[in-house]
């Protein structure tokens, strides 16, 4: 009974592991599909080109503004005045993030489906690993249970064989005693018949 219950539990775990494996494969396929969509999306490439152009223009403007600021700084230093604070820098990475939807007020990025697919893949893979570990543990438990059942069956058969051997020995003793008692009686009967009717 316990062995059949363990076998049924193992089958259920195997079915669950198969389901997690299918989910993992589907999530991996979704990752590839999302990557293909992003690579083949003309809007993404045009926005990336526009972001690169804006970053280059911003860098040129910063250089021109820096030259003017340096000239103005030299003029103030010549007259003994304090230099004004530098303007806040705007990097090309922030321009690219804004163009991809990462900055405030920007359009939503195109990596949402890819991030979702990656998260789904991680969850499915973790569940698959847990299911494999559970099936392995159940198999070890089943092996231990089956070994115990086999050992109990062996002990029962050995006890039965020992009882048969004892019964056979007892029968031999009874038969030997019966023969020992019967042989003198047969001899006496034969001798009596020979004397009386001989």
UniProtKB/TrEMBL annotation:
One GO cellular component term: mediator complex
Record field: transmembrane: none
Bias type Basic residues, positions: 66-80
Signal peptide: none
Region entry Disordered, spans: 55-115
Top-rank taxon, per record: Eukaryota
Protein name listed in UniProt: OSIGBa0096P03.2 protein
Organism: Oryza sativa
């Amino acid at each position: 009974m316990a062995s059949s219950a363990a076998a049924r539990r193992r089958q259920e775990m195997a079915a669950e592991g198969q389901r997690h494996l299918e989910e993992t494969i589907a999530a991996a396929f979704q990752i590839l599909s999302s990557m293909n969509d992003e690579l083949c999306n003309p809007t993404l490439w045009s926005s990336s080109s526009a972001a690169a152009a804006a970053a280059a223009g911003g860098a040129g403007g910063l250089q021109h503004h820096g030259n003017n600021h340096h000239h103005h700084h030299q003029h103030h230093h010549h007259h003994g005045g304090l230099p004004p604070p530098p303007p806040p820098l705007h990097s090309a990475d922030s321009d690219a993030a804004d163009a991809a939807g990462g900055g405030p007020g920007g359009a939503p990025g195109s990596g949402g489906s890819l991030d979702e697919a990656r998260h789904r893949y991680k969850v499915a893979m973790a569940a698959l690993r847990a299911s494999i570990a559970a099936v392995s543990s159940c198999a070890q438990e089943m092996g231990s249970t089956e070994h115990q059942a086999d050992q109990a069956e062996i002990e029962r058969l050995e006890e039965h064989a020992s009882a048969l051997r004892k019964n056979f020995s007892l029968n031999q003793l009874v038969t030997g005693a019966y023969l020992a008692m019967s042989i003198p009686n047969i001899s006496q009967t034969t001798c009596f018949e020979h004397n009386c009717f001989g």
